[in-house]
Specification:
62% helix, 282 residues, single chain, two-stranded antiparallel sheet
């Protein structure tokens, strides 16, 4: 006998409300909340710890706009490039990448965003901002490292409420799995979105918060964030169903896990760079 929790997708409407016939999804609300939470946390830390984060509110808000544009562009283009089976169509018709209407003119929104694509877009926007505004790149990266994780929790909850990015099928006979599983097309699946919210959001935030107290070298917080996120994402992917057009690689690895491994190694490279520069300065 399945519980109300197991059947939540059949009783919960992903559409929060309508405005003039336009559907407002819980995912959209969660996404806006994630941005506001991240900005609020950043403002809190530059106020409480001005020595660690000597950044003005004006520069922070300007940086926020730059990176948000980079994140949206990177996330969408990254999804098209990595996960979209008809990627060539979008590259030949780039105006369709952000078209929220289907061929019949119905508003369907924009679905398909890649975290790793968003990361690339974020980095490009951050580097451009630092160069244009003559700001310290690593200083902003450290602030981002401690500001993003809790906002990310809302993003993953939004995925859950939007009934997307399903988890893998739970093996039969798993008592723990049956208690937390969500019915999707008659099969119990892990609530992978919530697992990711916990691992990639809360755990990463606590890790960076601890690192902030222990590590003083500029740039190390973003390294801790990237390595911890990569590890947590790698673990979470064992509960998440890979995109059907992607499948598995090298046996049982998903594309998300492969990209997480790359992210970890790149972060280790940044760590080595920071350590060498610190030694030179000393």
């Amino acid at each position: 006998m399945y519980s109300a929790w197991n059947n939540i997708y059949s009783i919960f409407n992903p559409v929060a409300f309508k405005i003039f016939g336009l559907e407002i999804h819980w995912y959209g609300i969660a996404y806006v909340l994630s941005l506001l939470v991240s900005l609020y946390i950043a403002k809190t830390f530059i106020k409480k710890d001005p020595k660690r984060f000597p950044i003005s509110n004006k520069n922070l808000e300007s940086f926020f706009i730059w990176v948000e544009i980079g994140v949206i562009l990177g996330a969408r283009v990254g999804y098209i490039f990595i996960y979209e089976p008809n990627s060539m169509y979008y590259f030949l018709h780039p105006w369709q990448i952000f078209n929220p209407f289907d061929t019949q003119g119905n508003f369907v929104g924009i679905r398909g965003m890649s975290y790793h694509g968003a990361l690339v877009g974020f980095l490009i926007a951050s580097i451009a901002f630092a160069y244009r505004k003559k700001q310290n790149f690593l200083l902003y990266m450290d602030l981002v490292a401690i500001s993003i994780p809790l906002g990310y929790v809302f993003g993953r909850i939004g995925n859950f409420l939007n009934q997307e990015l399903y988890g893998r099928v739970i093996p039969s006979g798993s008592i723990w799995g049956e208690k937390i599983g969500i019915l999707v097309d008659g099969e119990l699946r892990y609530p992978s979105q919530l697992i990711e919210a916990f691992l990639e959001g809360l755990i990463v935030f606590v890790s960076v918060l601890i690192a902030k107290k222990l590590l003083k070298t500029q740039g190390l917080l973003i390294v801790v964030y990237a390595i911890t996120y990569g590890i947590m994402r790698f673990i979470a992917e064992f509960y998440r169903e890979p995109d059907p057009q992607m499948g598995y690689y090298f046996g049982d690895l998903s594309m998300g896990q492969i990209l997480s491994i790359v992210m970890i190694f790149l972060s280790l490279g940044i760590l080595i760079y920071i350590k060498k520069n610190k030694n030179v300065q000393n």
